[in-house]
Write a structure and sequence with these properties.
Blueprint: E1 6-7, E2 10-15, E3 18-21, H1 28-50, E4 56-62, E5 68-73, H2 76-85, E6 101-108, H3 111-122, H4 126-133, H5 137-142
Antiparallel strand pairs: 1-2, 2-3, 4-5, 4-6
């Protein structure tokens, strides 16, 4: 987003990635512009929620032996159930280490992003993963 944007002579402020006019004295043309923006944004949100857009998750599980398991999925609840109760769909690493407990997760818009994060964190030491789980960002930076 380049320089300063305006509607007429009214400056725009950026709020959560959406450009909206800054508060100014009432102006009917500004009101019409705001209504058009509100209707557009409402339609965009509605279209997004109606689409079959999946969310993807990177997750960390704590196993019964206190080891950590990293994975990715598009359905956390189903995947954790599979790890705990469906030996045919669970990871080989987790055999004999159930019941597992979800201790950390992140949400992504694409499978590629979730997979990239899984690959990154699988290379970390257990201590660094524990810092992430505890959200100890000072320790995480040092490791």
């Amino acid at each position: 987003m380049g320089g300063r944007l305006t509607v007429g002579h009214f400056p725009l402020k950026e709020i959560i990635g959406v450009q909206i006019p800054a508060p100014q004295p009432f102006d009917s043309s500004l009101h019409s512009s705001l209504m058009a923006i509100a209707i557009y944004e409402s339609n965009v949100v509605s279209e997004r929620s109606e689409s079959n857009h999946k969310m993807y998750y990177f997750y960390i599980l704590r196993c019964s032996d206190n080891s950590l398991y990293c994975g990715q999925t598009n359905n956390l609840e189903r995947r954790i159930h599979e790890h705990n109760f469906d030996k045919n769909k669970s990871a080989k690493y987790l055999r004999g280490k159930t019941l597992v407990k979800l201790v950390y997760s992140e949400t992504y818009l694409t499978l590629q992003e979730a997979m990239k994060r899984e690959i990154q964190i699988k290379k970390w030491t257990k201590i660094k993963k524990e810092a992430l789980i505890k959200k100890d960002f000072k320790l995480l930076k040092r490791l």
